[in-house]
Amino acid sequence: MKIMTLIRQVPDVEARLRVTGGEVDLSGATLVIDGMDEYGVEAALELKEGARGEEAVGAEVVVVAVGPRRNEEALRTALAMGADRAVHVETDLALDPIALSQVVAELVRREGAELLLLGAQQADWDSQALGPATAERLGWPQLTWTNALTVQGGVLSGRHDVDEGSDAFEVPLPAVVTTQQGLNEPRYPTLPNIMKAKRKELRKESLEAFGVRPLLTRVAADVQTKERLGRVVDGKDAAAAAAALVTFLREEAKVSR
C-alpha cells in the first residue's frame, strides 16, 4: 500500500511578517509545516506503524510539496518524522487550490497511491477547497475533517466532523482524507532520524511537466469601493447559479482567467 500526503510551508503563527510592495515578505520569517498538513503526515505514519494498537498496514509513505526551493526544509522535516521519501515540485509560481489539485492528482496517479491525506484547511489560503477538488479529479470518495482513522483489509474507517457533531464512516480504498487537530499528536523528529532523513530520497519535479497554471485571479483592493450591481443569484439550482455567476464575472465585472 502507498500513502501520499501533501505538505505546505507557512509562516509560524508567532512570526513577524513584513509587507513590501504590496506583497508579504517572507525573508527572515520562521517557516514551518502547515499544522493541519502535519496531522496528515502523522496519520500516515501511524497507519504504517499501527501506532494506536491496530495492525500495521506496511505502507510506503510519500510526502509531497509544491512550491519554492525553501520547501525542501519542510520535506526534510517530514522525512525526519518517518516518511519514506519525498517529491518536490519546485516552482515560484503561486498556485490556487484548484490548480494545485491538478498537480496533486497527477502525482497520485503516477505514484499509484491508494490513500491521499491533505490538511483540511490551509493556513495561508484559509481555504477548504484542495481536498474536494483533488477527490473530484481522481473520482475518489472523500472523508473531510477526520478525527479518527484506521485501515484494515483495504477498508478505511473512522470518524469525521459534521454539522451535528461527528459521524462514523467506512469506505473501500482508494480515498482522499482531510485531516485536522484532534486526529493525533504529531511527533517531533529525533536527532538520529534527522540524520537519516538526509539520506532519504527527495525527488525533484518541474511544474511545466504538469501543464498547470493558476486559475484564480487576484482581486485588487479597490473592488471594495466599487458600486454594487445589486444582482442576486438564485441558488436553488446550483449548476445554473454557478453558470450565472461566471457570466456576471466575465461579462459585467470583466474578471478574466
From TrEMBL:
Domain Electron transfer flavoprotein alpha/beta-subunit N-terminal as annotated: residue spans: 21-214
Pfam families the UniProt entry points to: ETF (PF01012)
- Select a single GO molecular function from the record's annotations and give it: electron transfer activity
> Could you tell me which InterPro entries the record lists for this protein?
ETF_a/b_N, ETF_b, ETF_beta_N, Rossmann-like_a/b/a_fold
The UniProt keywords, alphabetically, are:
Electron transport, Transport
Q: Which family does it belong to?
A: Belongs to the ETF beta-subunit/FixA family.
Xref: PANTHER family: ELECTRON TRANSFER FLAVOPROTEIN BETA-SUBUNIT (PTHR21294), ELECTRON TRANSFER FLAVOPROTEIN SUBUNIT BETA (PTHR21294:SF8)
Q: What is this protein called?
A: Electron transfer flavoprotein subunit beta
What are the leading ranks of the lineage? Bacteria, Thermotogati, Deinococcota, Deinococci, Trueperales
